């Protein structure tokens, strides 16, 4: 596995290599996380899943901590989304300077978005420096004009010499000359701490706030990983996901007892008692029918939106409110829809008003000017202009082999699939792989 060391020296193979598709045991040298992965995925740049969930890289945090030391915390914005309507890794708004930094492996498929960010910054008078490390020798693709390319890992470089140079260059660009800066150890420590995932102790501290009756027994390995815990009230032990605990989910045994107690108490109520408890549990609802038992339905009206429905009597006492109002709360705000759309579909302009993901909205293609009415959910899934799509062949590329097929059918035949539906789904990000391979679109213009 010498090739893997060149791609990602932070991964140690603990298992025996048999084939590129057969998973092997791995361990991250940075955070100690253990997992299994196919060697082909590791060679394609896939790293530690735990570190991948940290949100920001060591390189980004190195520059961020340095600039905070140099010009003050209040002057440096991390992950700002307001300046250009897109997320910027680092922004110093006072000096009109922004920095985007990351691995070539993660950015090579997002170059169009990176170029778009540079253009938006230029329109607003902001100078954007884009930095890629672990780059190949020859890059044929178009990249942002103000880019810095490095063939090696900036994180793994001894003494972080290049990151220091970039940091001092950024300071010089805003008129601050601090070549005698001597707090690099503090910068490295701060960047390391910020870029590491949540520790078990930090997780336990958060749980003491969200679920105070829960005692964490296991080690935190990520929000989607199950973790052993015990109820301080009844000593029940169970294994929810860490994310469920962070969202406030408590002991299932105690929850069941509470539900039974509420239902039992409701059964014994007379109509007057129920009406009183009804108003206490849901002051924005009006009871329209007479109570006849906890398992029978009652007629209810929402005083906020006027919606009428017939829930079970005991469910209202548990605090279940108006389903229409609840749906409106869950509905995505228009600002968030437009923000997400910029990342997924930068060549699409919204002309109509966003109401919900399933309601068609008037849309214009920035490339050809075509106007159509797709569902917002389709746009967020990557669906683009149908007129431009009609001028293209649906060519697909196998990420593992780098082979391009002229159609979905040709790709399906090559890997032994009966149709190209699953490959299409993989290209759209709806599934991880098809036929044992990962895929992406490689659109080719019609002759």
UniProtKB/TrEMBL annotation:
What range(s) does the CapR homology domain occupy? Answer: 12-52, 214-255
Q: Name one Pfam family in it.
A: CapR
Domain of life of the source: Bacteria
**Which intervals hold domain Treble clef zinc finger?**
284-327
Cross-referenced InterPro entries:
CapR_dom, DUF4379, WH-like_DNA-bd_sf
Name of the protein described by the UniProt record: Zinc-ribbon domain-containing protein
Q: Which organism is it from?
A: Adlercreutzia muris
């Amino acid at each position: 596995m010498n090739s893997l060391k060149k791609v990602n020296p932070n991964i140690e193979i603990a298992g025996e290599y048999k084939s590129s598709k057969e998973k092997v045991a791995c361990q991250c040298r940075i955070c100690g996380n253990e997992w299994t992965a196919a060697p082909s995925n590791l060679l394609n740049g896939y790293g530690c899943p735990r570190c991948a969930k940290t949100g920001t890289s060591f390189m980004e945090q190195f520059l961020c901590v340095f600039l905070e030391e140099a010009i003050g915390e209040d002057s440096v914005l991390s992950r700002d989304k307001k300046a250009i309507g897109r997320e910027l890794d680092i922004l110093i708004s006072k000096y009109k300077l922004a920095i985007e930094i990351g691995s070539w492996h993660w950015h090579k498929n997002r170059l169009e978005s990176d170029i778009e960010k540079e253009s938006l910054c230029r329109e607003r008078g902001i100078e954007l420096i884009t930095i890629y490390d672990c780059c190949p020798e020859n890059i044929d693709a178009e990249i942002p004009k103000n880019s810095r390319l490095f063939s090696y890992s900036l994180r793994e470089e001894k003494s972080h010499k290049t990151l220091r140079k970039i940091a001092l260059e950024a300071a010089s660009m805003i008129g601050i000359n601090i070549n005698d800066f001597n707090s690099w150890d503090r910068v490295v420590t701060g960047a390391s701490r910020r870029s590491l995932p949540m520790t078990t102790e930090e997780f336990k501290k958060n749980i003491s706030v969200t679920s105070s009756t829960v005692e964490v027994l296991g080690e935190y390995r990520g929000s989607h990983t199950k973790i052993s815990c015990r109820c301080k009230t009844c000593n029940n032990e169970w294994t929810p996901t860490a994310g469920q605990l962070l969202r406030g989910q408590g002991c299932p045994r105690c929850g069941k007892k509470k539900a039974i107690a509420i239902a039992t108490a409701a059964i014994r109520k007379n109509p007057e008692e129920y009406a009183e408890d009804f108003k206490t549990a849901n002051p924005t609802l009006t009871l329209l029918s007479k109570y006849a038992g906890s398992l029978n339905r009652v007629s209810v009206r929402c005083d906020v939106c006027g919606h009428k429905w017939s829930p079970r009597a005991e469910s209202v006492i548990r605090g279940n409110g108006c389903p229409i109002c609840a749906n409106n709360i869950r509905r995505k705000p228009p600002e968030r829809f437009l923000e997400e759309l910029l990342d997924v579909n930068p060549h699409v302009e919204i002309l109509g008003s966003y109401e919900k993901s399933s309601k068609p909205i008037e849309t214009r293609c920035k490339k050809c000017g075509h106007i159509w009415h797709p569902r917002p959910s389709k746009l967020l899934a990557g669906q683009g202009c149908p007129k431009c799509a009609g001028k293209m062949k649906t060519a697909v590329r196998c990420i593992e082999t780098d082979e391009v097929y002229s159609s979905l059918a040709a790709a399906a035949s090559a890997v032994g699939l009966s149709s190209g539906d699953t490959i299409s789904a993989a290209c759209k990000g709806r599934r991880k792989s098809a036929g044992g391979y990962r895929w992406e679109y490689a659109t080719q213009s019609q002759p």
